[in-house]
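Quick log. Single chain, no ligands specified.
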Amino acid sequence: MDRTAQLTARPTTSGIAYDPPAATASLRAGAARVLEANWTGGSTVPSRSLYPHQWSWDSAFIAIGLRHVSPLRAQTELETLFTAQWADGRVPHIVFNPSVPLDAYFPSPDFWRSSTAGRTAGAPRTVQTSGIVQPPVHALAAWLVHRADPALSRSRGFLARMYPRLAAWHRYLLHRRDLGGAGLAGVVHPWEQGMDNSPCWDAPLARIAPAAARSFHRADLDHGAPGDRPTDLDYGRYVRLAADYRDGGYRDGPGGRHGGGGGEFAVEDPAFNALLIASEHALARIAEELGAAGSARRARAERLTRVLVARLWDAEAGMFLCRDLRGDALVPERSVSGLVPLLLPGLPRDIAAALVRTLHGPHFSLGDRTRLVPSYDLLGEAFDPHRYWRGPAWFNTGWLVERGLRAHGETAAAEALRAAVLRLAGATGFAEYVDPFTGEPCGATGFSWTAALALDLCHRPSAPHERQKLDKGPQNDVSAADTGTFDRSDKGGDRG
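-> predicted structure:
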């Protein structure tokens, strides 16, 4: 389809009939099978072929879905991830499985050298990890997992053990990663923000000299079409940034500001910070569950929301934009990241309304030309409906936007997006991402967060009077009928 046709196309069902009552049981069973197949005994890989280790924000989303079929396994998912937390509080974006061959994924443990290069920052000695981070969805996930089975959670001391680790994680982001000095967390690599290949990174990355192509082998191209993946030039820049950060001892803050170790990439991202704020709200709830005061954390979340608006809101664009800290200027690119702050309960009403207009307007056209939320501006010069994060629609961002719409009373829009996510998740075999116009699957299939978040949306109360506020989280319990292929005394064991 040429670009003119893409921009005028209307979403179709691709011949797929979707009857929600009839499809729900099948969808739940299929999603549970994906999570079972990707379970390794202590955590869940995103994809057996393309991503054979544990990824940080993937595990948070996976736990959110797992809570509906095995609250114990959902708790274990997060507990396993946090056993790899560094002493400085950071949660690494990859925890490597030592049984996986080194050449199965790049960058591999021998590239990151966490136990040696990260020694000063407190990297664990017995677990190999990366040295960068991913978006902090974890406290939100922990709270939702607790709510799925509070009795099990309390009996295991789940929140009591997770809370200090989550607090240290947030402390790292709010202090060591306050690269701009205004209170928001900065990212030092595109992989940290999670939307790896977004056009938002093109200008900040342009000043990075790429690593030589012969110095690394891209394992991702062994499993995915080159046209759907980052270019060799961009990948070379990713490798250079990671190597420089590693060679600087993974240092942040004084002496390592604006990218750690003197690096050139430092960005404040709206989605990363919105998820941090959402998780601060969740930490307040966790503190109160544990008998402590949550007011200080709630006040911090409200203050950070004001800072987010002051630094990253662009009224002309009608959405939040990234701030390049090297030039202290907003990056004039519209991506789904700038819509994710709709999650926040304290967002000013006029800004929430503007975000909804932008979501349905010509730049994203949700429900008109697109079936799910595209990852990048339909009218942007860099838009590509298939290339990684440069236009395709992803299920995790669809889940976040659906939650935001519901939090701000946009029930009809939330229901339409929820139905679209469920329809496409099932129809594509739980694809990694899809063409936003046609729903054509891209990347891996049997993708864990797609399956997990589809499970969550299957359980989401949809009546207007049941609309949930973000800081309270869903109040649904898990019934015996929803346990699927899992068992509460399952293979994960009690990781006390």
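Residues 40-203+266-419 form a domain with the Glycosyltransferase fold (CATH 1.50.10.10).
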